[in-house]
Amino acid sequence: MAIKFEQVSYEYIGVDGSSYKAINDINLDISDKHEFITLIGETGSGKSTLVQHMNALVKPSSGTVSIYGIKVYKDVRKKAKNVKLNPLREKVGLVFQFPEYQLFEETVLKDIIFGPRNFGVSLEEATKRAKDIINLVGLDESYLERSPFNLSGGEKKRVSIAGILAMEPDILVLDEPTSGLDPKGRDALLELFTSINKTLGKTVIIITHDMNTVYKYATRVLVMKKGSLVFDGDPIDLFTNQAIDQWNLDLPDLLEITRQLEAHLNVKFNKLPRSIDELFELVKGVL
Amino acid sequence: MKNIIIGQYVPGSSFLYKMDPRSKILALVLLMISTFILRDVLHIFIMLTLVLVILKVGGIPIGRIAKGLRPIMILVFFTFTFQVLFVKSGTILYDEVLNFTLYNLPIVIALVFIFFLTKRFMRYKILFFVSIVAAIILTSIYFTPGTLLFDANLQVYTDGVSGAFFIMIRLVIIVTLSTILTLTTKPTDLTLGLEQLLKPLSLIRINSEEIALIISIALRYIPTLLDEANKIMLAQTSRGVDFSEGKLKDKIMQVISLLVPMFIISFQRSDDLANAMEARNFIPGAKRTRLHVLSWQLTDTFVVLVSTLAVASSILVNLFL
After folding, report:
1. Do A114 and B257 touch (CB under 8 A)?
2. Rounded distance, CA A48 to CA A179, Å?
3. Fewer beta carbons within 10 Å, N or C terminal of chain B?
4. Chain A 95-124, CB below 8 Å of chain B: which residues?
5. A245 and A256, same domain (yes or no)
6. What tens digit of pLDDT does each residue of B226-280 get?
7. CATH of the domain at A89
8. B94: part of which helix (H) or strand (E)?
9. Which domain holds residue A264?
């Protein structure tokens, strides 16, 4: 297992000494091969705090996170001086919720190669990666020479995601990567993540509020509520067998339509459709 | 950053909280003036007693103030030591020759080494430091076998000791007084009070309302910007910036990767704020009413009177004693 959470809790300590448990007793195994995980839950349920543990940005208040064999726990820097956490961040790339704020270089190219250069990738190699990746995120090479501050919000977001992709992490973690993008751009990015997952065999972890994304792309879904991990499993299991109302979730559009059709046509489909075409075939089958 | 207590409001209910911010600011200024006027260690002790009485009556735990004093502890400590060691006037209190010989010098060096090796495990560093220094002094006085290598005079004079206490107490009083003010006054009240007190400056064309607005916006944005800085630090750490280690050249790049986004965010925020204020029809310099109106009570008059009395008496003490 690439990432292993063992009884991990994290508390934020206020100035007056009060504490707030952001995540509570999390046990989790994540492989670095072929997983497409979506992490869902209401706002404030600890999703962002959880993913920040995955590349040792925050250290647990109690429990241990093992990332590629390196154990991360409370005060790890003080207790184990020779442990280097920085290399972990090349293996687990984390894209923040508003990544556009991390842009700071004069040109888009310089900003994209900033991450790889920090991890010792040569200038030529990093530039080559940047040229490939800028196309992948839906921009073209003319953007490389522009200033990142004159781009639109969506373009900034793509550039900052490109900055993480250029590090070529084994596990890609994205905190709401598609918020603020138009539907077409959103789908294009999600397709990009799927192709990274499928063709390169890397694990992708996405925090999202969109159930359609969960149903369409995920091979595994994690549900958080009030800091605890309440569900870890298959999306179909989640939407068919679990009482999702208790976690303030709703059904993906496709399943909602299917359910309505079943009720109105008074039939029972023999399987759940994964796409609109499959649903069409099912409806054709019963009529 | 979590231990910064100067400038932080902590809710409470004593008379200090009920006072008008204007009277509190006035009293602070007056008491500070009298602290600076006083020149004698005995008088400054009386002043310290007054401050302690304020703390006691105001119901502020001394522990909180002590926490606030921690950042200036090193400064206090150094001024104290330098005063004690280097002021050579008044009558001599203590005179001893420190002998460093062939045999005790290694012990002294060993003690210094022990200090540097073990200090990170100690909870009370300053206490540990003092005891090590004391151990070094004792060794060099009483354990002196072997050939004398060199010696030094350790002389302490009365003026040194009193001066040291004087400066230390003065520092403590000033920090304590300002901590009391910020501890018991909400930032909004503080700026409102300041605005009212600066009103007379409009005679020389300084707009006190604008100054107060600037201060309150600045105070309001400290936590927000700290939060943003923290987020950007995490984001850049994800991109391989290691803020805790690295060479000087890398350090510069690290700071740039933090500062540039911070600048951009601050400008963006101020732009947003300006728009939001305009959307709510904010007009600079327009006459406006307040939700909370300051009210001057009898206590306020009393406190300001006492503070004025303190200034007057310290002037008198200085002139005639």
Report:
1. yes
2. 14
3. N
4. 95-96, 98-99, 101-104, 114-115, 118-119
5. no
6. 888 888 999 998 988 887 766 777 788 888 889 999 998 899 899 999 999 999 9
7. 3.40.50.300
8. strand B92-101
9. 252-287
Q: How far, in Å, are A2, A124, A132, A137, B185 from residue A143 at the CA level?
A: 35, 18, 12, 12, 51
Q: What is the CA radius of gyration of chain A?
A: 21
Structural domain count, chain A: 2
For the beta sheet containing A92-95, the strands, ordered from the edge strand earlier in sequence to the opposite edge, are A92-95, A171-175, A203-207, A36-41, A220-225, A228-233
For the stretch A56-87, what's the b/e string if a residue is b when 16 or more beta carbons lie within 10 angstroms of its beta carbon?
bbbbbbebbbbbeebebbeebeeeeeeeebbe
Render B113-156 in DSSP notation, one character per residue. Answer: HHHHHHGGG-S-HHHHHHHHHHHHHHHHHH---S-EEEEEEEEE
Spatial contact of A175 and A92, defined as CB atoms under 8 Å apart? no
Residue pointed to by tokens 């008491």: B31
Q: Which amino acid is at B97?
A: V
DSSP state of A44: T
Q: Say whether both A160 and A273 belong to one domain.
A: no
Q: What is the widest separation between alpha-carbon atoms in chain B?
A: 85
**Residue of chain A nearest B240, judged by CA positions:** A118
The reply to whether residue A114 touches residue B239, judged by beta carbons under 8 angstroms, is yes
Cβ neighbours, 10 Å, residue B28: 18
Residue A60's pLDDT band (boundaries 50, 70, 90)?
very high
Q: In this structure, are A68 and A98 located in the same domain?
A: yes
pTM above 0.95, yes or no: no
- Whether this model's ipTM surpasses 0.95 comes out as no
Q: Name the residue facing A102 among B10, B236, B242 (closest C-beta).
A: B236
SS3 content of chain B, % helix, strand, coil (to 5): 70, 5, 20
Q: Is the same domain home to A112 and A194?
A: yes
CB atoms within 10 A of CB A89: 26
Cα end-to-end span (Å), chain A: 48
**Counting Cβ atoms within 10 Å, is residue B256 exposed (0-12), middle (13-18) or buried (19+)?**
middle
Strands (E) across B178-252 are located at none
- pLDDT for B1 equals 40
What is the Cα–Cα distance from B31 to A183, expressed in whole angstroms? 64
Both A41 and A135 in one domain: the answer is yes
SS3 A84: coil
The C-alpha atoms of residue A67 and residue B189 are separated, in whole angstroms, by: 49
Which tokens belong to A53?
């543990």
Can you read off the two tokens belonging to residue B128? 């540990």
End-to-end CA distance of chain B: 45
Taking the CA of residue B23 and the nearest CA in chain A, the distance in Å comes to: 27
- Paired strand residues for A171: A92, A203
Q: Which residues contact B49 (CB under 8 A, 6 or more apart)?
A: none
- A133 and A227 share one domain: yes
